[in-house]
């Protein structure tokens, strides 16, 4: 595992270099986290007037107000229905392929790999526009099925590559040993291969769920104005509701990602994700 | 067993690209019939191929030149800056290690888990007229203009969303450079700059190419960031394509723009596929 490599621990005595490093780090942190904290704080304020560093007061009122907006409630419902379906559909479609590509050297492996990369190599919004063209013919514009398909397309890369790496990492000798001990093929798959590959599969599911939950471009293009999920509802509310409502809604929308990532953090930052994408 | 994902990609990515291409050059029959009836200003006639009128419409549109310039500049500048930042963080983590760099790497991954709509909106409030950015400058007595609705904000937003993946890739690229190689170069008297330039960067080249291509493709095709943070006109193609499709109901022109973006990105796309394929090959996945 590449992450076990120790850093070189090159330290410098020069104060100038140290100062530059610290300045670079603080700059990066402010750049990255500053906007998030700024928005999150707005969820709890009565009002925040420029150019004060302090709001006029603190309140939890906005958390109640969000649930009084019908658009937002229906968006929450759509998101909670659509995302699990996307994960399940994607798993059913992709997991067998992931297993096959890890275990058998079938004919289309290269083609498959190139197709996957190619579908990522087109600028997304252009792809969505072409998909919408087909959707008019299939009568899928503004339907839930249409939104689900658009989101599944984006999850395929997670659902095939991360589990494929996980399946490939299961030692063949272990499976063979179990077979020699008399276990049936199915039993070997269920109790050894699947169980050992489970962390990878779970990471793929988490990533797919988050992708689906957060997907906005494609969902907006083929779903609106009939179907608004939580992210696409944001497009609609930012102009019409006070910033505090959007801040609360942003927090609600971020909760699932943060929770899931928290649960699967070790695998994602540590390896499964990077492994699925590139290193081995 | 491998067939289902290939079929899904074929039907919902391959087929639409083909259809949309034929629509863009004037084929309005067959599967394109419905959209040709619904859409406005659709050029070309049923069953007859080949008219470039829709392309001419788009290029003659006064918005086109500005949009093209904006899209290309934003993509180029954002990609360069993402490369600089991710290589900086990657080197810091690989060469120095320590608490600071792990906190930095951890924090840099945050945007990966924040929906892009939220990050765009957060950036909008942060850099907007009543944002912290102006508040800070104000306390030094400087009344500077907001930077939202400018290209600069779009660039900042694009960097923000592209950084986590870039850092993940570049860091793992540097991790795969063996300590022994770096130490050997040190023993031979090479300076840090020389080591970075002649040992570390070349050995991490493939992940760096993947980052460069992936970032530029992502920014070229982005919608949410320029929609929230950019000016109304000129804007990036992502916003214009969506506007033409939904707000103006001119799907053919929208698709034409998509193909112009595809053409602009084709060189990058090929390098992206090549680099990924090579990295897959090296790690023995093919």
UniProtKB/TrEMBL annotation, chain A:
Keyword flag Transmembrane helix: yes
SUPFAM superfamilies xref list: MetI-like (SSF161098)
CDD domains (UniProt xref): TM_PBP2
Xref: InterPro entries: BP-dep_ABC_trans_perm (IPR050901), MetI-like (IPR000515), MetI-like_sf (IPR035906)
Keyword terms of this UniProt record: Cell membrane, Membrane, Transmembrane, Transmembrane helix, Transport
Location within or outside the cell: Cell membrane
All residue ranges annotated as the ABC transmembrane type-1 domain in the record: 76-264
Keyword presence, Cell membrane: yes
PROSITE patterns named in the record: ABC_TM1 (PS50928)
Pfam families named among the record's database cross-references: BPD_transp_1
Gene Ontology biological process terms from the UniProt entry: transmembrane transport
Topology versus the membrane: Multi-pass membrane protein
Bilayer-spanning residue ranges: 20-45, 75-100, 112-138, 144-171, 192-213, 241-263
GO-annotated cellular components: plasma membrane
Primary subcellular site in the record, as a coarse category: membrane
PANTHER family: INNER MEMBRANE ABC TRANSPORTER PERMEASE PROTEIN YCJP, MALTOSE TRANSPORT SYSTEM PERMEASE-RELATED
Protein name, as recorded: Unannotated protein
Lineage: unclassified sequences, metagenomes, ecological metagenomes
Automatic annotation (TrEMBL), chain B:
One of the record's GO cellular component terms: plasma membrane
Listed GO biological process terms: transmembrane transport
Keywords, sorted A to Z: Cell membrane, Membrane, Transmembrane, Transmembrane helix, Transport
Segments passing through the bilayer: 7-27, 72-92, 104-127, 147-170, 203-229, 255-275
InterPro entries to which the protein is assigned, alphabetical: MetI-like, MetI-like_sf
Membrane topology: Multi-pass membrane protein
Annotated localization: Cell membrane
Main subcellular location of this protein, as a coarse class: membrane
Entry keyword annotation includes Metal-binding: no
Domain ABC transmembrane type-1: 68-274
Entry similarity comment: Belongs to the binding-protein-dependent transport system permease family. CysTW subfamily.
Full protein name: Unannotated protein
Species: freshwater metagenome
